[in-house]
Specification:
Number of domains of chain B: 1
Oligomer: heterotetramer
CATH architecture of chain B: 3-Layer(aba) Sandwich
Number of strands of chain B: 4
Distance between the termini of chain C: 49 Å
Structural class of chain C: alpha/beta
Chains: A alpha/beta (about 230), B alpha/beta (about 150), C alpha/beta (about 325), D alpha/beta (about 675)
Largest sheet of chain C: 6 strands, mixed
Shape of chain B: globular
Distance between the termini of chain B: 20 Å
Order of helices and strands of chain B: EHEHEHEHH
Strand content of chain B: 15-25%
Strand content of chain C: 15-25%
Structural class of chain B: alpha/beta
Order of helices and strands of chain C: HEEEHEHEHEEEHHEHHHHHHEE
Shape of chain C: globular
Helix content of chain B: 25-40%
Number of helices of chain C: 12
Chain lengths: ~230, ~150, ~325, ~675
């Protein structure tokens, strides 16, 4: 477990974006959305949920898949697919990360969507645990632990520090790049926050959402295939 | 002949002119027959009446790379379809004011009443409009960049 | 507010039970206290779910386009701003007036839950408003907020009165207020062209083309919208080129110009909180300036500013910001 | 797949001089959809059209584009050619590469490039053309002539002789117009009344002609073949059917002080009067501003003395509504007001008169019984000076920029008649140029100079001022290069003429285009001089431009020929480019009918199948193709684009925009 003071987060962002493209929640024209980091941009990690989910990084609302050029009567197809630059997706909430996993089941299964795959492999996902879930949160009912997110790197944020825990090789590789900015420790603060978060999650209105509201047939399909629960 | 000009030496504006068949188109014809020249980058589209021009056409012109759009019609009261140009006047007054509100330079949009007998005036208006738009420079605000790159 | 809600539920049940109406259009309770949604109630039991509280901002008149085609009469609760949209739809023959029983319901302004949350209040359980104080009961205790700061944007400048009513449920008079609804527009007009372009470029770049504004707008109720019709030539849906958003919003604003009643629904539902009402209000301000005061929806017949003219109208080349310059 | 043929015209050298026509044809050859491209010297010629017909058959073309002159010139020619080759005439588009390109740009490369763009734009449009069928609408076999001067009379007589009913609407109490006020006419010195009144009588007696005197056109609706006109019959206070024209009322009427308009106000006439002896209809009329009975309620003498009881003080304006197939505008002219020309002293000297006033002074029925006497002291003028171009050819803005065409001839006529009747009178004429184009015109002018010794002085007049009873005409003599002043007893101003002011209202009613000098604009200056661009409206006389009587009469007969050509047809082809609503998309919101100037749009409830056996009744718009003129106002008011215009559809125009902007 590593930690870094909140005040030095800007240095972390700068360090990451030297090596790779950094995408994280940025406040622009009054709304917080995932956007490319640049010096001076107002990063807003406290906002629980961005307006649009981070899905755009892998599955954009619209993209140019190919171009064609007409010259007189003949048409020429241009393959404009470009290799996605190595990217870091920072600040992904646990529920969004589960959504990305669900997307993986769809796009990475045979026949693989190469556009999606290209972006997915080039991206290191840093998840950010929730400290203050809201009444509309329903992570519990889908077996998502808001306090202990998966992802290449898991992070927690409290009043003073950002706590950093790499989970996969990608996570390790990224950590190596920015290791010197961090100090060791922080397990205690993290578990304390986890306690609090889980307590709140229990009390959320949707904690005991009854899926049978959906018709029985669909709820089984839903839980079996998409959530991987056998 | 390479009909697509690769790079543009100095900026020459691309102007779309909507002319109503009964007055301004005839005015343009008269300007032509009287050899009253105006720059070649003005291209005229004939419409039955100025009231046929939908704000969509003006926006489509800008999207496709036009640098200036001018709409010509009969003088109010002379419209061949009695009231056509009165509606045009209201629609374009609101549209032009709104485009300016969105930050589009006011001088890029223009409306002129030109009768069939005013060849002189037609040529003068076009010369003036091209000069104005050339000073403004290329239209970068209300245009679809994808179209500009020639896709 | 609770007293008004009781009266609403009571009248709805009476009308439905007596068979005077075949259905009631109102707001049904959502998962929380702040998210009631428009609903059609066809039985007295269902009416237990009918609510009328500080978050019923939705304008119900647009739903009547389809519902008034059904058999039997429909009762509907209309706030002052909704009645203008209702009238405008009557003028355009989209609602069959005889098949609607309009109940004018009192409205002292509705609250915006996002503005409440923006003030750091969360886990909201209930809301009570007394005069200018808003008491928000949450899981973490009660917060008190100043009402004008958490009103829906469209209610901040509202000076509307009921234009249509077969019956009325008004228990508290609304204090008349004198407020300039064009102040924001004037501020934008005062900017330079570059500043205005930058402002709208930033705002419209947020647009994700979800069409919420179009789907909620009473004036934007075409059987088949140009943006859904490939034959229209402008039916692009992608949101990756800036111009598409400009085109969409300019054309939408133009299509409703002279018909928009300034009900503010578009801004209320925009997920990216783009101040769309400032677009429509620009047209309204210009129309008032160029052609004289006009409030769409005040009458249910007659021409709109864009389908009438006078010989002396202002010339487009010098028509700017509501005057001839 | 589209098979489009493109024909680039040289137009002799008009296009080929500045447009590389061969390169244009080559470049267009590889446009998508183009299967045939050719260029030829004269596409509008017989073998040019043959080229088109042949190409259509050989390459079974689906659409053609002709890069040539303005569609307003030869669109019909090329459409007819295509039709004869079996192609729908509306699959033809014209690229105007002459008036809008070759004639106004110099640099060859730039002009050629623009020509390519214009042709490419026309191709974009033709690809989206749909074959259209022209509709038909019935023709009402009756013509309306507005204005009862010589132009209106001649047109009415010719139309009526062809067996069609004609109504003449004349603003004044009698037909005859300006010509009735003239004494003699050039170049033959015929007496004006002698050649005019027989035609007036013919009109009155012709069973096919109905004269609506003292009436004005109030409202015009409809279109060629189907005009619906509302005519206001002004209150005459005299019953036309009873009055026998005995004129007793004129003698007895005490209110004698009215200015006699017929004599240009040089003498007076009673409140109740018949304008002149040969007036048609020979019926009195009461001037309401002057009649004591109508103003104060007292008097009523004329009613007592009227033998047939024709006087009726209670008469009100009445309205008549009639249908017509064609309308001839013959509203005539009037001399311009001279308030901007006080340097000639017209306002303050009674003896400075206009030529028309001179006509009345010399006319036997005029105020002085035909004896030429000065208006001030009724003395015979010894020295008369004419001043030409008063208010004509004036670019200063006070007068008219155009030449009024008839003044040189009528001044020569006046000078000749005066010298012949009063040989001792000195006649001087200040002129800039003497313009006498026409048969026997210059010979007429030569006689005035050589045989009658009229002193023509080439030079302008600076001032006319009164000095102890004499009118001093101060001007320059450019030939002898000196300033001269002529002491004259009478000064005649050859005043510019302008169309009747009421023509502007008529033009608006008929939606006929009119220019800044109030002359009605003809459809084409050389090829269609008597037709207004508005179909079914024809122009005769000075309302279309300054002209003399021979030209006016020939124009009137030309109009008659055109009208007869129209009324002979039972059915007229209507313009197929009309609005067409798409019922599936129409909201039935009623906005389009608000903007339709012709009331061509109505709404019906129609049943639509929703699938699954369910149906729905929806209110949708319908357009009457016979009434719609295809302006397109409704297509823009319709938000969903359900209303579109055939021939100029939204998609077509947008494809043209795209073609233009795709540099």
């Amino acid at each position: 477990m590593l930690k870094i003071a909140k005040e030095r987060l800007n240095e972390l962002y700068a360090a990451i974006s030297n090596a790779m493209e950094l995408v994280l929640p940025v406040k622009k024209a009054g709304e917080v959305n995932f956007a490319m980091w640049a010096e001076g941009k107002e990063v807003s990690l406290e906002t629980l949920k961005t307006v649009k989910s981070p899905k755009d990084t892998f599955f954009p609302q619209s993209e140019n898949m190919m171009k064609f050029k007409t010259d007189g009567k003949n048409i020429e197809i241009l393959d404009i697919r470009a290799e996605k630059a190595p990217t870091v997706l920072f600040g992904v909430r646990p529920c969004d990360y589960k959504a990305i996993e669900v997307l993986d089941k769809v796009f990475l299964a045979d026949p693989v969507d190469t556009y999606y795959q290209n972006r997915r492999e080039a991206t290191t996902i840093i998840t950010l645990a929730c400290a203050k879930p809201e009444e509309s949160c329903f992570c519990k009912v889908f077996g998502i632990d808001a306090a202990a997110p998966a992802g290449d790197v898991a992070t927690w944020l409290d009043g003073d520090n950002l706590y950093w825990q790499a989970n996969t090789e990608k996570g390790e590789a990224l950590t190596a790049l920015v290791k010197e900015l961090f100090a060791e420790g922080g397990e205690a603060e993290v578990s304390a926050q986890q306690e609090k978060t889980r307590a709140i999650v229990e009390k959320l209105p949707f904690a005991t959402l009854d899926l049978s509201r959906l018709s029985p047939k669909t709820s089984t399909i839903y839980s079996m295939t998409l959530l991987g629960r056998k | 002949m390479q009909d697509v000009k690769t790079e543009k030496k100095e900026f020459t504006p691309n102007i779309v002119a909507f002319c109503c068949n009964w007055c301004s188109y005839a005015g343009a014809d008269l300007a032509g027959s009287s050899r009253l020249s105006y720059p070649a980058n003005v291209k005229i589209i004939r419409v039955p009446c100025s009231c046929r021009v939908n704000p969509m056409f003006v926006l489509k012109a800008f999207q496709q790379g036009a640098d200036g759009v001018i709409l010509c019609g009969c003088h109010p009261g002379d419209c061949h379809y009695v009231t056509g140009n009165y509606y045009t006047r209201r629609r374009m007054a609101l549209l032009y004011s709104f485009l300016n509100y969105m930050g589009i330079e006011k001088a890029r949009t223009r409306l002129e009443w030109v009768s069939a007998a005013e060849g002189q005036r037609f040529s003068a208006v076009m010369n003036d409009f091209v000069k104005t738009v050339t000073e403004l420079g290329e239209n970068k605000r209300l245009t679809d960049l994808r179209v500009k790159e020639g896709e | 507010m609770k007293d008004v809600e009781l009266k609403v539920v009571e009248r709805a049940k009476a009308l439905l039970a007596s068979g005077e109406v075949a259905r009631v259009v109102g707001w049904k309770k959502g998962d929380f206290c702040f998210d009631p949604s428009p609903a059609v109630f066809e039985s007295v039991e269902e009416l237990d779910g009918l609510v009328y509280n500080w978050f019923c901002g939705a304008n119900l008149s647009k739903y009547l386009i389809e519902i008034s085609k059904k058999e039997g009469k429909t009762a509907v609760f209309l706030k002052p701003c909704d009645t203008y949209s209702f009238n405008q739809l009557i003028k355009e023959h989209r609602i069959n007036r005889e098949k609607v029983y309009a109940i004018a319901v009192e409205c002292l302004g509705k609250l915006d839950v996002e503005k409440i949350k923006a003030k750091g209040v969360s886990m909201i359980e209930d809301v009570e408003v007394v005069e200018k104080e808003v008491k928000v009961a949450t899981a973490y205790g009660t917060e008190t907020l100043h009402k004008p700061e958490v009103l829906l944007t469209k209610c901040e400048t509202c000076q509307k009165t009921h234009q249509v009513k077969d019956e009325e449920i008004i228990l508290h008079e609304r204090p008349a207020r004198d407020v300039d609804r064009f102040a924001e527009v004037a501020k934008l007009e005062a900017m330079t062209e570059d500043e205005r372009f930058a402002f709208w470029k930033e705002q419209l770049s947020k647009c994700i083309r979800c069409n919420a504004c179009r789907n909620v707008c009473p004036a934007c109720s075409c059987v088949k919208c140009v943006f859904d019709n490939p034959a229209s030539g402008i039916s692009a849906k992608a949101n990756d080129a800036e111009f598409e958003e400009q085109l969409f919003h300019i054309i939408r604003a133009f299509h409703v110009a002279g018909r928009c009643t300034d009900c503010g629904e578009c801004s209320r539902v925009c997920p990216q909180n783009i101040p769309l009402h400032l677009l429509n209000r620009k047209f309204i301000k210009d129309i008032d300036g160029f052609y004289g005061e006009y409030q769409a929806g005040e009458e249910a017949e007659g021409k709109t500013p864009l389908t009438s003219f006078t010989e002396g109208d202002v010339e487009p080349n010098d028509a700017v910001d509501g005057e001839a310059k | 797949m589209q098979r489009i043929g493109v024909f680039i015209c040289w137009c002799g050298s008009n296009i080929a001089a500045t447009v590389d026509v061969v390169k244009v044809a080559e470049t267009i050859k590889n446009e998508p959809g183009v299967v045939f491209a050719a260029n030829y010297q004269y596409m509008c010629s017989e073998n040019g059209q043959q080229l088109i017909k042949q190409a259509i058959k050989e390459h079974n073309l689906t659409g053609i584009v002709v890069g040539a002159c303005s569609p307003r010139m030869h669109e019909a020619t090329f459409r007819k050619a295509a039709e004869e080759a079996g192609m729908n005439p509306y699959m033809v588009e014209i690229a105007n590469i002459r008036e809008h390109c070759s004639w106004i740009h110099k640099d060859m490369e730039e002009t050629t490039e623009k020509a390519v763009v214009l042709v490419r734009t026309a191709i974009a449009k033709v690809k989206l053309n749909a074959p259209l069928m022209a509709g038909e609408s019935p023709v009402i076999k009756r013509a309306l002539v507005i204005g009862g001067g010589i132009a209106g009379i001649q047109a009415a007589l010719d139309i009526a002789d062809a067996g069609f009913e004609v109504d003449i609407v004349e603003k004044n109490a009698t037909i005859g117009g300006r010509m009735a006020q003239l004494d003699k006419t050039f170049p033959t010195l015929d007496c004006s009344a002698c050649i005019l009144t027989p035609k007036m009588v013919d009109c009155a007696q012709h069973e096919k002609i109905d004269i609506l005197s003292y009436s004005e056109v109030e409202e015009v609706k409809g279109f060629v073949g189907n005009f619906n006109v509302k005519i206001r019959r002004k209150a005459r206070y005299v019953d036309e059917s009873k009055c026998t024209g005995c004129k007793i009322c004129m003698e007895k009427c005490p209110a004698k002080k009215g200015a006699n308009e017929f004599n240009m106000g040089l003498d007076n006439r009673p409140a109740i009067h018949i304008p002149f002896a040969q007036a048609i209809p020979n019926v009195a009329v009461i001037d309401p501003e002057q009649c004591i009975k109508l103003k104060t309620g007292k008097c009523g003498i004329c009613q007592k003395f009227c033998g047939v009881g024709a006087i009726d003080y209670e008469q009100k304006d009445t309205f008549v509504e009639r249908q017509y197939g064609a309308i001839v505008v013959a509203t005539g002219f009037k001399p311009i007001a001279l308030d901007n020309f006080n340097e000639y002293g017209y306002a303050d000297n009674k003896d400075v008169i206009t030529s028309l006033e001179l006509e009345r002074l010399m006319n036997a029925a005029g105020p002085t019984g035909g004896v030429l006497l000065r208006p001030s002291d009724k003395q015979h003028p010894k020295v008369i000076t004419f001043i030409q171009c008063v208010g004509s050819r004036d670019s200063s803005g006070c007068g008219k920029p155009y030449c009024s065409k008839i003044c040189c001839m009528y001044t020569a006529k006046h000078a000749m008649l005066i010298r012949e009747k009063y040989p001792d009178t000195e006649v001087h004429v200040f002129y800039i140029d003497v313009r006498t184009p026409g048969k026997n015109y210059d010979e007429f002018h030569r006689r005035a100079v050589e045989q009658y010794g009229v002193d023509y002085i080439k030079g302008m007049v600076g001032k006319v001022y009164n000095e102890n009873g004499k009118l001093m005409v101060q001007g320059s003599n450019l030939i002898d290069n000196e300033q001269i002043t002529i002491e004259s007893d009478l000064v005649v101003l050859a005043t510019a003429i302008e169309p009747e002011p009421s023509v502007r209202k008529i033009a608006t009613l008929l939606t006929a285009s009119i220019d800044t000098n109030n002359f009605l604009t003809e459809s084409h200056a050389k090829l269609r001089p008597v037709e207004s661009p508005t179909a079914g409206v024809y122009l005769a006389g000075v309302c279309q431009g300054p002209k003399d009587i021979p030209e006016t009469v020939s124009q009137a007969s030309a109009c008659a020929a055109k009208v007869i050509g129209l009324l002979v047809k039972d059915k007229l082809k209507t313009n197929p480019c009309v609005a067409q609503p798409d019922e599936n998309m129409c909201n039935g919101c009623g906005q389009c009918a608000n903007v339709c100037p012709y009331g061509a749009i109505t709404y019906v409830d129609k049943e639509f199948r929703l699938g699954g056996g369910k149906t729905e009744i929806r209110r949708v718009a319908t357009v009457n193709p016979a009434v719609c003129q295809g302006c397109g106002a409704c297509t823009v008011t319709c938000p969903s684009g359900a209303m579109d215009l055939k021939g100029f559809s939204s998609k077509q125009i947008m494809s043209e925009v795209e073609a233009i902007c795709k540099m």
